[in-house]
């Protein structure tokens, strides 16, 4: 059937554009031996580090009891998507790049490869989107947002993410928009309608949601910063306040000192009652900082590629790509690099993950849970001592 379709398409291609059949063939880059070595080493390092980092995330959450909580299901889903990209997609891209852009694995596997590429990358992007929504609701509605504590609901969210990601891969497999698989070229369908649909669902909509969530978390953190900017804290040189707060000894009965003592006692009571709000404030600040780095890194990695993918059908038509191969591959690998960066970001901002990574890399498998519990208790004691030092 595919041969018959190819034979039917050949006359049409010759009538429409005599050079169209060679456009894809011309998009081949002949690298020298030195270039192949440099490019091969660089993209192989990206692939291996991506596998290692995301494997550590999955192993850590699955083996460490403290990390096996519903709030980390999305983190595991993100790591699984990025790991799938590294295992099922990147090796074939490496081979294709090193032979100058020729697809060597046949038409049937080309469709499978594109489906895996689109589904895994989309799942990674959409999981980042859901994580941003989850962080926002968990911080702004800690009492009315129960999903973070309900494993079944969180699992359903992960399932919906992968279902939506898979839905983007189905149209080319069922005839809406066929992938380009001619002349050893493996290219996702360049149909204008499908391109708008796939890039919108896979990138532009999730990115918009992530930016909105980050903006709202940033506003919440900024409002909390204004609320908790204690400009009237007792100064070290204010002896009356120190006496009032620390020892409870009443200063001499003068009008000025009595007023200072009342203000000091009121402030002390306020600080003690506001301890919970300070913790929420710190969580908001950390979430805003973490999500800001995630959104910024994600945008830098994927925006150039999706801008090119959206513009390509309008610039080149629906049969082949007229974008230089080196530019396509550079932007594609920039997007793949996001799968490498994601576990590094979460390990950097999550102390438990960071500690677990370090222990696993040092082959200290025993008593990881006990060490994490001890570290958490130590941090809690430090926070308590620091808070008590204010009074």
UniProtKB/TrEMBL annotation:
Keyword Metal-binding assigned: no
Membrane topology qualifier: Multi-pass membrane protein
Family statement: Belongs to the G-protein coupled receptor 1 family.
Alphabetical keyword list: Cell membrane, Disulfide bond, G-protein coupled receptor, Glycoprotein, Lipoprotein, Membrane, Palmitate, Receptor, Transducer, Transmembrane, Transmembrane helix
Cited function: G-protein coupled receptor for 5-hydroxytryptamine (serotonin), a biogenic hormone that functions as a neurotransmitter, a hormone and a mitogen. Ligand binding causes a conformation change that triggers signaling via guanine nucleotide-binding proteins (G proteins) and modulates the activity of downstream effectors. HTR7 is coupled to G(s) G alpha proteins and mediates activation of adenylate cyclase activity.
GO BP, one annotated term: adenylate cyclase-activating adrenergic receptor signaling pathway
Compartment list: Cell membrane
Listed InterPro entries: 5HT_7_rcpt (IPR001069), GPCR_Rhodpsn (IPR000276), GPCR_Rhodpsn_7TM (IPR017452)
Residue intervals of the G-protein coupled receptors family 1 profile domain: 53-346
Gene Ontology cellular component list: plasma membrane; synapse
Protein name: 5-hydroxytryptamine receptor 7
Gene from which the chain derives: LOC117656959
Protein source organism: Pantherophis guttatus (Corn snake)
Record-linked SUPFAM superfamilies: Family A G protein-coupled receptor-like
Gene Ontology MF terms in the entry: G protein-coupled serotonin receptor activity
Residues annotated as transmembrane: 37-61, 73-94, 114-133, 153-174, 194-214, 291-311, 331-349
Principal place of residence: membrane
Record keyword Disulfide bond present: yes
Pfam families from the UniProt entry: 7tm_1
Source species taxonomy: Eukaryota, Metazoa, Chordata, Craniata, Vertebrata
């Amino acid at each position: 059937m595919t041969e018959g379709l190819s034979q039917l398409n050949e006359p049409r291609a010759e009538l429409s554009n005599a050079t169209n059949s060679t456009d894809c063939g011309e998009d081949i880059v002949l690298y020298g031996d030195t270039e192949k070595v440099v490019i091969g080493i660089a993209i192989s390092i990206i692939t291996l580090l991506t596998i290692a980092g995301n494997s550590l995330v999955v192993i850590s959450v699955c083996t460490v009891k403290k990390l096996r909580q519903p709030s980390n299901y999305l983190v595991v889903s993100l790591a699984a998507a990025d790991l799938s990209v590294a295992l099922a997609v990147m090796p074939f891209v490496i081979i294709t790049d090193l032979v100058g852009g020729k697809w060597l694995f046949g038409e049937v596997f080309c469709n499978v490869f594109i489906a895996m590429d689109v589904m895994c990358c989309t799942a990674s992007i959409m999981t980042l989107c859901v994580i941003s929504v989850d962080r926002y609701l968990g911080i702004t509605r800690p009492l009315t947002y129960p999903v973070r504590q309900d494993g079944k609901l969180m699992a359903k969210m992960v399932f919906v993410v992968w279902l939506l990601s898979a839905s983007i891969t189905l149209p080319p497999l069922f005839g809406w928009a066929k992938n380009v698989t001619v002349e050893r070229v493996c290219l996702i369908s360049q149909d204008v309608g499908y391109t708008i649909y796939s890039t919108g669902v896979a990138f532009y909509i999730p990115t918009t949601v992530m930016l909105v969530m980050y903006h709202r978390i940033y506003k919440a953190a900024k409002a909390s910063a204004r609320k908790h900017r204690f400009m009237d804290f007792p100064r070290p040189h204010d002896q009356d306040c120190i006496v009032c707060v620390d020892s409870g000894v009443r200063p001499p009965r003068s009008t000025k000192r009595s007023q200072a003592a009342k203000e000091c006692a009121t402030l002390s009571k306020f600080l003690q009652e506001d301890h919970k709000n300070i913790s929420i404030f710190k969580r908001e600040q950390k979430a805003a900082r973490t999500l800001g780095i995630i959104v910024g890194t994600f945008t830098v990695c994927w925006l150039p590629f999706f801008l090119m993918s959206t513009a390509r059908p309008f610039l080149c038509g629906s049969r082949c790509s007229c974008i230089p191969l080196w530019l396509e591959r550079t932007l594609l690998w920039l997007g793949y690099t996001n799968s490498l960066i994601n576990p590094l970001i979460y390990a950097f901002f999550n102390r438990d993950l960071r500690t677990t990574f370090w222990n696993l890399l040092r082959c200290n498998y025993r008593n990881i849970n006990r060490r994490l519990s001890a570290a958490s208790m130590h941090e809690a004691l430090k926070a308590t001592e620091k808070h008590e030092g204010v009074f």
